[in-house]
Design goal:
Helix content is about 45%, strand content about 15%. The strands form 2 sheets. A 5-stranded parallel β-sheet has the order 3-4-2-6-7, sandwiched between helices. Helix 2 packs across helix 9 and helix 6 packs across helix 8. The protein contains 9 helices and 7 strands; from the N terminus they run H-E-E-H-E-H-H-H-E-H-H-E-E-H-E-H.
């Protein structure tokens, strides 16, 4: 159970004992991730247009749903600890419903929650064991684009840099070969990802 943090976990490394856990299911899922304002949604939308199955970012879905019910973004984001607990549960639920053998692109995946847990002051190791239900086929981290405010996120450049670093560190700690997607035009980024998949 996630409670109000009493310790600063923002630099906590992943527990090596838990990291030795074997993955349960190999999937054909490809993770598209990165810090806020890296172009994930644009790339996911392009992949969907190409006919691939895609899973949108859970945080955006939740925040937009709550705003549609009349809540303000600052109200939704006020208690980051509770919000993060909701998002972890939602991500777990979504991934449990996917077919392991179906080619699917995820706009963030469960291991992203490790970095976001740290950011709000929660111990990432509390949810680390959940990251071994499924092994992803590949992990793409998009390099940062110039940041733009979108009314949903309030992250500044320091936060963006922090998340960019920890997302890469966590996925590598879990044994993934992280593929960095450079800053290119949207069409070139799509071609870059599809080319890597065909290798």
């Amino acid at each position: 159970m996630l409670n109000t943090p009493q310790h600063d976990f923002r630099t906590t490394e992943l527990d090596p004992d838990i990291l030795s856990t074997p993955f349960k299911v190999q999937t054909n899922w490809h993770v598209i991730t990165g810090a806020p304002c890296c172009g994930k949604t644009t790339l996911i939308d392009q992949l969907a247009e190409k006919g691939f199955r895609t899973v949108p970012e859970i945080a955006h879905l939740y925040i937009e749903r709550e705003m549609a019910l009349g809540r303000k973004s600052n109200e939704i984001l006020k208690n980051r600890v509770d919000l993060q607990g909701i998002l972890v549960e939602m991500q777990l639920g979504i991934e449990q419903e996917l077919q392991a053998n179906e080619v699917t692109f995820l706009d963030r995946a469960l291991p992203d929650c490790l970095a976001f847990n740290r950011y709000v002051g929660l111990n990432p190791n509390e949810i680390l064991s959940e990251c071994f239900h499924h092994r992803y086929a590949s992990v793409f981290i998009l390099d940062l684009l110039p940041f733009q405010e979108d009314g949903v996120r309030d992250d500044d450049s320091a936060v963006v840099g922090y998340l960019d670093e920890w997302l890469a560190r966590d996925y590598r700690a879990l044994g993934y070969r992280v593929v960095r997607v450079p800053v290119l035009s949207p069409q070139e980024r799509l071609a870059f990802v599809l080319e890597r998949l065909s290798e």
